[in-house]
Design brief:
Blueprint lengths: L25 E2 L5 E2 L2 H8 L12 H12 L7 H5 L4 H20 L2 H10 L7 H15 L6 H8 L5 E6 L2 E6 H8 L8 H6 L10 E2 L17 E4 L5 H18 L3 E6 L10 E3 L2 H11 L6 H6 E9 L14 E6 L5 E2 L5 H4 L8
Parallel strand pairs: 5-6, 8-10
Antiparallel strand pairs: 1-2, 3-4, 3-11, 4-6, 7-9, 9-10
Helix pairs in contact: 4-5, 7-10
Length: about 350
């Protein structure tokens, strides 16, 4: 009888971000996410696609056919026959994305194909959703709320405040929503310094003593992550980025925050966002960088491959430096694709 009892709560792994569709996917032999009918069907149930009372018969018929067979071919003529011009546009965008997913076979292959082509035309909302569900796969099994919150940074834009040495990262959409709807709260200074003047804020900075609350509010995006040096949030982000690299490439890497680059043989760097990419390029080329730009640099990282043979031969064994920076509006848009397309892998790795 004892064997039939459920595991204690502490042994259960949190099932977070349930709305992202991770539960609708299956893993292939490499641990990557195979595109399933159930996952595709969820897109056809979105309100932008689902028929409304005014929908024409052909739109209703097309929608029903796709729910029955989500991978069925859809011709340009079928879409052109729809009466609603917005409906035609929505179907063109979604079917193009659906086709890319189906052709690629896995979400990871589709993601890499989009960025390696160098001409990304897929709607940003689809890219963010794809990043979210892949990040969820990377984090599967974790019971660390700091890592889950850090994972949000890969697909949700942040607003940043640097106050008395602390680097605080809040979800931009949530912060703006709260700023427009309520009065002053304990985190009000964070919002004001971030360029937003709220009446109230209902945000908590994640600390060891309250981090467990994340699992009850994981899709509210209302916890602020402290990215200060030596804080759990920055360590968690480092572990998420390690997992992201290994999930896609199979290469085990170690990523550690550093306060400055003192390497006289600095040979490779990767900016994790647009601002840090330009900043690191200028520093590498010995260009003058003014104090205002330097203050936007939030942190630096050092990446080391555990197996240097997986790197390009000319830099094998050398560290890779990475940067994370906010822009002049104190916004941070982390681009995890940079870690993949700019990684100096050996040709056969």
């Amino acid at each position: 009888m004892v064997d039939n009892l459920p595991p204690p709560m502490a042994a259960r792994r949190p099932n977070f971000w349930q709305s992202c569709g991770y539960g609708l996917l299956v893993r292939d032999a490499h641990g990557h996410l195979s595109v399933t009918d159930a996952f595709l069907k969820a897109y056809f149930m979105r309100p932008e696609i689902a028929p409304v009372e005014e929908s024409c018969d052909k739109e209703i018929a097309l929608h029903a056919a796709l729910l029955a067979e989500p991978k069925r071919p859809v011709s340009d003529a079928e879409i052109a026959a729809l009466a609603d011009p917005d409906g035609r546009d929505n179907y063109r965008v979604l079917i193009d994305f659906r086709n890319r997913l189906v052709d690629a076979g896995t979400l990871e292959s589709c993601y890499l194909n989009l960025f390696r082509d160098g001409n990304v035309k897929t709607a940003p909302i689809f890219l963010d959703q794809m990043t979210e569900v892949i990040t969820r796969a990377v984090l599967d099994g974790t019971d660390d709320p700091f890592r889950a919150r850090a994972g949000e940074m890969l697909f949700r834009e942040q607003t940043v405040t640097v106050h008395e040495g602390a680097v605080l990262s809040g979800d931009l959409e949530t912060v703006e929503k709260l700023a427009n709807s309520g009065g002053m709260g304990a985190i009000g200074e964070f919002l004001v310094e971030g360029g937003i003047k709220p009446r109230q804020a209902e945000l908590d900075v994640m600390l060891e003593e309250n981090a467990h609350k994340y699992w009850q509010r994981d899709e509210r995006h209302d916890m602020v992550l402290d990215l200060s040096f030596t804080r759990p949030g920055l360590d968690a982000l480092s572990r998420v980025l390690e997992g992201w690299v290994e999930h896609f490439t199979g290469a085990a890497v170690s990523i550690q925050p550093v306060q400055k680059i003192t390497d006289e043989k600095w040979v490779w760097h990767i900016g994790l966002d647009t601002e840090s990419s330009a900043l690191l390029n200028d520093l590498y080329d010995d260009q003058d960088v003014d104090e205002e730009r330097m203050e936007r640099l939030l942190t630096l990282f050092r990446m080391d491959f555990k197996d240097p043979s997986l790197m390009q031969a000319d830099i094998a064994g050398r560290p890779i430096y990475m940067g994370l920076a906010m822009n002049e509006k104190k916004r941070l848009r982390l681009k995890p694709q940079n870690l993949l397309v700019n990684l100096p892998l050996a040709p056969d790795a």
